[in-house]
Every structure is written in structure tokens, then in C-alpha cells.
Specification:
It is a single chain. With 221 residues, this protein is mainly beta. The protein folds into two domains: 12-76, Alpha-Beta Plaits (2-Layer Sandwich); 90-215, no CATH class. The chain has helices spanning 33-37, 57-64, 212-215; strands at residues 12-14, 19-23, 72-76, 90-93, 99-109, 112-122, 163-167, 173-183, 188-197. The strands form two sheets. Strands 4, 5, 6, 7, 8 and 9 form a six-stranded mixed β-sheet that branches. A three-stranded antiparallel β-sheet has the order 1-2-3, with helices on one face. A hairpin with a 4-residue loop joins strand 8 (173-183) and strand 9 (188-197). It starts with 11 loop residues before the first strand and ends in a 6-residue tail after the last helix. 41% of the residues are buried. Bound molecules: iron/sulfur cluster and FE2/S2 (inorganic) cluster. Iron/sulfur cluster binds at residues 28-34, 67, 69, 71-72. The site of FE2/S2 (inorganic) cluster has 12 residues, from helix 3.
Amino acid sequence: MGENYTGTADDRRYSSEAVDVTYNLKRCIHAAECVSRLNEVFDIQKRPWIQPGNSTADAVVETVSLCPSGALHTERNDGGAGETVPGENVIIVHEDSYYQFTGDIDLHGSNVAIEQEVRAALCRCGLSENKPFCDNSHKKDFVAPAAMVEMGGGKTAETGGKLLVTVHENGSIEVNGNFELRDAQGNTIHHGSNTWLCRCGQSSKKPFCDGTHKRVGFVAP
Ligand code: SF4
Ligand code: FES
């Protein structure tokens, strides 16, 4: 793949002369950004459901860049501009829902190894069958505000540079690198350069890990 994404074995490729689209079904959270924004290309009534040649490559790249889960990526064949790596790292903590990462991300650890990523929806309820990614299992009964704990000021106001996201087996998501945590309304929860985010869903200091995963025997291979 291109500079913004190094790909996984599960990705399925849909080609056209100007641009290829890859799709990872297991990472799709069915937010439907793609089908609602560019239905001539993304149409679940058609086979194949992705037909990148039905619009301009620029429109395909723009739409794919809005996919919150990282299930979709593009690769230009015509020399045009692909999706750029964001200059800031942002983690949106969705209420009762998932972590939405955007940035210059290296995502690795338990059950994942993606050296270069720009978007990812990661589980924070502990129930996903496709950990560390979200699979919408939070919709069953996960209740969690964006932030139970206000951490106060941060260590840094910087938000750029490489973001190392390490998924710990049976534990939290460790984040190293400059980043900003926000709620879905855009309010800043925390600025920092390293933290541990809860992914067992049971911390009393959400979105931060407080060690509860050990007490409750959280199992996440
Ligand atoms: S925008 Fe991404 S997450 Fe949403 S339905 Fe399309 S592929 Fe799935
Ligand atoms: S991952 Fe939830 S408390 Fe550590």
C-alpha cells in the first residue's frame, strides 16, 4: 500500500485504472460514511460493492479518508494525491462506544501489527470479537461517558509526530507520542505524550486504565 498504510493480510482489493481501494471487512463498523457520501462507488446492492472507477480518484480518496474505522484505504495508480498522513494525532473517546484514532500511527501488539496507519477504531468496551478493533459490540450494553476523569493539564501541547500505539495482551492500550484526547463534541479531555487507555471497559477512571483489568481477569489475546 501507500505511505499512509502498510496493509494487512485480510484486506480485499478493488481496482480501477486511477485508484485502488482496499477494504477490511472485520474492521468495518458500518458507519456508512462511504455509501452515503459516494454511493456510485460504494453500493452494497451491487457486486462488487466497491467500484472505484465509477467516480474520480480524488472523490474516492476524499471519501475513504472519512472512514472512521480504517476499514478502507486507497492507493493511487495515476500519480495523483493519495490520503495524507495527518499532522496531528487525535483520539476521540466516543461516549458508550469506541476510540477513534487519527494520526501518524504505528499500531502494534496483541493481535495487531500495522506499521503505518492513519485511522483506526479500537475497542474500549472489552467485548469486541475482533480486538483490538471495534466491531460494534459496545452497542449491546456498554455505558461509559467520554471521560469519567478529568486529568487536567497535559505534559505537552504538541500533537504531531509518530504515535506508537501498543495493545497489551489482557491489558490496556499504551499510547506514546504527542496526542490529544477529545470527546465527540471536540472538547479536549487530555493532552499528553504517553498514557494507558482502558480497553477492558471496567476502569473507574475511564478512559484511562486503572489496573482493574487484572482484578477482573480481562482476557484479550
Ligand atoms: S465508512 Fe468505513 S466503517 Fe463506515 S461503512 Fe464504510 S467502510 Fe465501513
Ligand atoms: S484496560 Fe481497563 S482498567 Fe486497564
